[in-house]
């Protein structure tokens, strides 16, 4: 849309989160403050009523520490599009993308709370599986477009294909339509 400065600032913010905010196992938090912090506690305001007297009213975000695996697809698609329409992704950024993609290949089987932010137990959501497919696909496309070294290309391709097959086999209930 022509907002190149904003896109560049966003990618700079995301790059910093990729570098400095991952957990020891490689996961990314799902929510950040505008300053990059993940300290966003949820507080219930029992003395207030929401729209049409709905309760509870909360500030903050209780989903801050949920596992939402779809974030990797959205992140990688944004990175891929930035490379395509903005500035080229640097080699240093590519190395971080490789780490994230390797992480995704290792966790795509796991259940999560997805964009639905369910407060109950984690499940396997089709949307999350599709977005994990997107994450790997965009990393592979980026490697191809930029001729980046991709030492785990075959592993990534196998995981991407496996996710596709699982979504096609388990992601639609023919009886329910």
Largest sheet: number of strands, sense, barrel closure: 2 strands, antiparallel
What percent of residues are in strands?
A: under 5%
| Strand order within the widest beta sheet | 1-2
Helix content: 40-55%
State the order of secondary-structure elements, H for helix, E for strand: HEEHHHH
Structural class: mainly alpha
Which shape, going by the Cα principal axes?
globular
Q: In angstroms, what separates the terminal alpha carbons?
A: 37 Å
Low-confidence stretches: none
Number of H/I helices: 5
Q: What is the number of E strands? A: 2
Oligomerization: single chain
Question: Compute the gyration radius: what is it?
Answer: 18 Å
Mean of pLDDT: 92
What does this structure look like?
With 177 residues, the chain is mainly α. Helix content is 50%, strand content 2%. The protein contains 5 helices and 2 strands. The chain has helices at 4-20, 71-85, 91-107, 126-146, 153-170, and strands spanning 43-44, 58-59. Helix 4 (126-146) packs antiparallel against helix 5. It is globular. It starts with a helix and ends in a 7-residue tail after the last helix.
